[in-house]
Amino acid sequence: MTDYERIKALQELLSKDEKYDFELSGKRIRLIYTDDRHTELKPYDEGTIELIQRIEGSEDQVWVQWDSGSSLMMLVGKDRYEVFE
């Protein structure tokens, strides 16, 4: 399944729920820093943003499909990353 097909399927399932934001869906993301000790991702690894999940009382989650195959979510305000075209 391509990134586009995955994002489209997620939109169909979740778009009616206001806690899911698809504004950055399909944009590219580059990891700068994460303190997750269990990931094999390294700084400058890249992936595609699927969606952002807004979580009341906690850090928002950026769902990412990494080029390496990882699906580690980034936490807004905790992990460092950059979004690009």
Protein architecture, described:
The chain is an alpha+beta fold and 85 residues long. It has a single domain, classed as SH3 type barrels, CATH 2.30.30. The chain is 14% helix and 34% strand. It has one helix and six strands. Strands 1, 2, 3, 4, 5 and 6 form a six-stranded antiparallel β-sheet that branches. β3 and β4 form a beta hairpin. The two termini are 21 Å apart. The mean pLDDT is 94.
Overview features:
85 residues; alpha+beta; SH3 type barrels; six-stranded antiparallel beta sheet; 14% helix
Identify the overall geometry: globular
Are there runs of 5+ residues with pLDDT below 50, and where? none
Count every beta strand, where a strand is a DSSP E run of 2 or more residues. 6
Output the number of helix runs.
Answer: 1
- Kindly report the average pLDDT value: 94
CATH topology-level fold name: SH3 type barrels
User: What number of structural domains do the residues give?
Assistant: 1
How large a portion of the residues is in β-strands, by DSSP E? 25-35%
The ordered string of helix (H) and strand (E) elements is HEEEEEE
Gap between N and C termini: 21 Å
**How does the helix and strand content classify structurally?**
alpha+beta
Major β-sheet annotation: 6 strands, antiparallel
Helix content: 10-25%
Quaternary structure of the protein: single chain
CATH-derived architecture:
Roll
Please report the first level of CATH classification, the CATH class.
Answer: Mainly Beta
Report Rg: 12 Å
